[in-house]
Structure formats: structure tokens, C-alpha cells
Amino acid sequence: MKKISRLLALALSLCMLLSLGAMAASEEYDVNAERFAAFGVITASASGETSGESVDIVITESAAYDSYAFDGSTYGAAEGYLTVTVGGVEVNPADLNGVYEDVVFTVTGQIPAFVDGYASAYRTALYYDENGLNEELSVLAAVQETEDGVKIESHNANFEGVIASAGEVTIDNLVIRAEGNGANDFAGVGAGVAAGGTSKVTLNNYEFIAHGIIRHGMFIGGDDLLNPPELTVNGGIIVAGNPVDENGEAMYEKSSGMSMSSSPWMLGIEATPEVRTQLMASTGIATYNDCVILSSGWGVVSSDAVDGPANWGEYTIQMYFNDCILDFTGTSGYISYAIGSTHNTFTNCLIGDAIESEEMADVIEYVKDTYDYDIAYEAGVEALNGRHYNTTYALIIANETAGGTFDGCTYTGTYGVMYHKTNNVRYVPGATDNSSAVYAEDGYTLIKDSVFNTYGAAILVKACTPAIYVENSVLNSETGVIAQLATCDDPGMGSRYFSEALDITAPVEADPDYDPYDYNTKDFSNLGYQIEGMLNDVEIDFADCSGESALNGDIYNSISVSTTGEGMTWWGQNLICTFDNCEINGVVSSSSALHNAYSGFYDAEGNEVEADSIDEAIAAGAVEGRITSDNATYLGNMTNYVSAPVNNGVWAILTNGSVWNVPSTSYLTRLCVDETSAVNGVVTVDGV
Description:
mainly beta, 26-stranded mixed β-sheet, 15-stranded mixed β-sheet, 4 helices, about 40% strand, disordered N terminus
């Protein structure tokens, strides 16, 4: 991996023309000048609508002061939006008391919507449109020139560094420091840099360090599928989050006016008020080269509210990470989230558990020396075999045709790739239905020439239909599980808990529409396209996993009862495993599974049963275990019990010299072994 370029050298001169004189209004006042005396309610916003916000002092126009006395009063603009800076730093004047020098009041109008028609009270230091830098809508007083670039600092909520809605924008050596919350996760309110509309933004040596909820380092989102916004970051140190204090309390709290301000616990991550370091919405392309991207929780680089593609097989949102470090400083969260028509590609990246790496040590030292800012990894995650599982997932894939690629990466986390509510479109080999002639395979995950070090399953599928390809990759699991297809334990948004029957020996009703020996298909509407004959089974293809990359671990299908997660209802599914030139040392089988821990136990009447273990709870009459948000990380953590298939067939297809060494009995519904391959051990196929 390359050394982070920001640490080696500073880039070329600033690619913007900024006038110091333009940063302040023409008139100046001293501390004894008469203050604006309008009191009461702000009359109108830039749109002409009355805001109803009650303030103490209403500012009618921009003005600058050599010095100014604040007394904790609240301020607002008579029309438009007010931004106050002190010494070039954006502040909330209500937080100030006393005399301050170099005070500028800047009144700006409404910035046009640049993502799916969303108009907000954006305030930004630099705003670019089709005509270049728009000074009337920029707060130039918040732009501080440095020796080789610019710095933007905010100690207030909902202030942007840069917004671009059109044109090509290149900024060298941009530094953004932010303290305070954002407001809208899907519109980039409060982001460091927001690339929207049809803009093409390039940042060379970008440094973003922020504390707050929904205070993204980057937001990318437009509404033109044929000309999406693009953001390219060459050399960056991007740190966002909401660390805890010495009492274990989050530094910032969410409020009712904030959209998506707490991480969704049903994903199996801690439900805390946090931030996604990057958020992409609607449509866009983002590329990061030689960057360090960190979060204290929830997610690092994410997508949401994704538009459907203009043409089938295309991806509306694309992310590319080359020679990057992506990690958590907190204790729980995902590195990447792909939803809808999104594909995230990681090449030669160090993902998770980077704290002791040489590159990360250099970054921590640089940020401390330059900004007197500590990048502190939270304790609380016990190291196993020297590995810290602060990261929960490398990638979560959700809905429609999302997917991802890991090429030449090293990842460490609790689980590898997790799928929930995903419908990746594939067809039965040789099918001749009309849709297969029109629609290509869409939505896949590729793990190539990579190393995954996980606590649990490297591949965790929760009642979905993904296509997964693993090539010449090492999948190390502390619990010995390479891949797991399981009943969905995502209870859905708004649910109070996930529940599960504790008796794995109870008879299971057979799904009458399920075929364990052949492909299962269904018709489905996906991204607005009607799909016929889509493959309903899970496919994992392993290739060239032998020698140092041999598959040392187990593969299970434990989905046997109906699943009613949000937006999905599955019952019988086959797990189809193909091995091409592979060595397999482990069980490949159908199974029953239970979670390893629960928030509480309940009897048949719904009464809580006091118990310290599952066995003790069952002995006391408990029939059900529940997992609540307080114990979100219990989700996905389960133990398998090998058993004959009911609704959970497993196929093993061995080709091209593959060898399967079976340590104990495995149950399959279909076994195919070519003349070059072998099975060493006991395998039960359809009861034989």
C-alpha cells in the first residue's frame, strides 16, 4: 500500500481565485457602533415563506466588525440565511459572550436543490454552479487562506464547506474542521464537501476532521442518471464520528429534527447516534485514491435512497477505493453499505483493524502534530489472536441488485459480507424464458486475491438470493464458518425485537413449493423491471482456493422456517456451492441454528423467564428467545447443528481437481464430482 500522499508532500497551489476583500462587506463597524435593533420573529426566508423562528436580533444585510460584543443573544436574517464568523471560523453567536475581533455577518439566499429536488437552508463557505464560484451564495468570510490551500472551520451545526451543483471544480489542499451536527442524511446538510447536480469535483490532499451526528466528510448525490455528479479524492485523511466521553456518553445527541440520526440496530450494529463518513444518495460516482477514511460508528462509506438505473444492468451509484485505509475507531459498524443499484469496489485496501499498521500510525501522529487532535480507538473490543474486531461488516448488501468487489484487500471484522433483503437477479443455466434474453445477470459480489479475517461467518446471507464469487482468497474465521445461509433475523425498521423458537428438534413444516434437487425460480419486479424466472437459490462459486488459500472452515444452510423480515418472505432455499480447483477442509451441510445469546427468554404465554443461559431457560419452560436493540450485536451470532435438510438443501459441485476433506458427516441434497476431483469422508446425499 502506498504511503498516504498528504504526509509526503503538499500539492500544487490552490486552484481557486479568492479575494480577501470579498470575504467581508464594504462597511465596517467598531464595538461601540449601534447594533441592529430589530427584535422578534424573522419575517421571511429566501423563498418568501415565514420561518417563524424567534430570535433576539434580526440582521438585514451583511456587515463586518473589527470587534463586536456578544451577549448570548440569538441572531437571524430578515430574509435569507445568516452565517456568523469570528476570525474566519463559523460559529453560533448564541454561544458567545464578550468582545470578539474580526466578526462578519453574512446573509445569503437559497441555494437551489441539487439532489432529487430537495431544497434546504444550505449555508456553505464555497458554492459552485454552472458559472463557477457563486460569491452571492457563498460565505467567503469562512474561507481562511493557508500557505498552500484553504481551511474552513465550523463550530456550529449545519454548515457546509463546499457545495458544487454543476461544472468542474478542483481544489488543492482543502482542510475542513467541524464541530456540531448535520441535519439531513439524504441531502448532505452539514457535509464537508457536497458534490451534486452534474458537478465533477476533484480534491487533492483533502483533510476533514469532524465531530457530530450526520456530519459527513463527503456527500454525493444528483438527479440526472445520464450525467451524475462525480467526486474524486486524491490523497485524503477523512475522520468523522461521535466519540464517547470519559463517562461513556456520546459527545453529541440526536434531535427530533434530524433524519436518520442513529444507526439501525436491526443490522446487528450498536444503536448509537453516529455518522456515516460518506453518504451517496440518488445517483453519483465517487473515487478515492490513497485515502484514510475513518468513523467512530454506524458506517464509513454508504449509500441510501438510490434511484433506479436508466438501463437494466447499470449501476446508479458507484464507489471506487484504491490503496485506501478504511476503519472504525469505535466498536461497531459497517465499512460499506450498498443498496438498490449500487456497486462498491475496493482495490488493494486495508479494511478494519488498521490501528497497529505503519500507515495508520503515521496518520495518527500527523493529525496530532498538525491539529492537536487525537484519533483515539475506543477500547471494549477484546483482541482474539491479535485481531481487533471493531468493525462488524466489510460490506452490507441490501435490496434489489446491489453488490461489491474486493480485489487484493485485507479485511478484519466480526463478519465479512452480510446480505439482507437482497434480490440479485440470476437465471437457471440454459433457461430460455423471455426475460433471460433481455436482462443480464446483475448484482454480484466478488472477493478476489484477498484475505478476510473474521470472528463469525465470512459470508453471511440472511434469506436473500445473492451471487457470490470467491477467487484465490483466504477466509479465516474464529468460529470456523466460511459461509452461512440463515433465516433472516432482521426484524425490520420500527420492530421492538427479533424472536426465535428455542427448540431446534421440533418438527419443521416442509415448504410445498420448494425443490431441494433442482433450481427454484420465481417472478419478481426489480428496480421497476418485471423479471421472469429469477433464480431463488443462493450461489457461491469458489475458484483457485487451494494451498495457502484452502477453504478451512464450514459452510451451512440453516434456513428452514419461514422468514418475515421487512420486505422479504422466504422459506425453502438451496445453497449451491461450486468448487473449481479448490481444497475444502470442513463441513458443507444443511443445519439447524440458534443464536448464542438473547436479551430475554419467554414462555408459551409470553411471560419472561429469568435465566442465565439458553439451557437454563429451556429447563424453566422458555420456548422463545428475543433480541432487542440493547443487544443488537447478538444478531448474526449463531451456532449450527448439522441436520438433515427440510427446506434447506445444499449442493456441492466439485470440478477441476477439487478435493473435499470431510471432518464429520455432511448432509447434501445434490453432489456432483467430476473425474478429476474427490471427496474424502462421509457425505449423506438425500438420505443415502
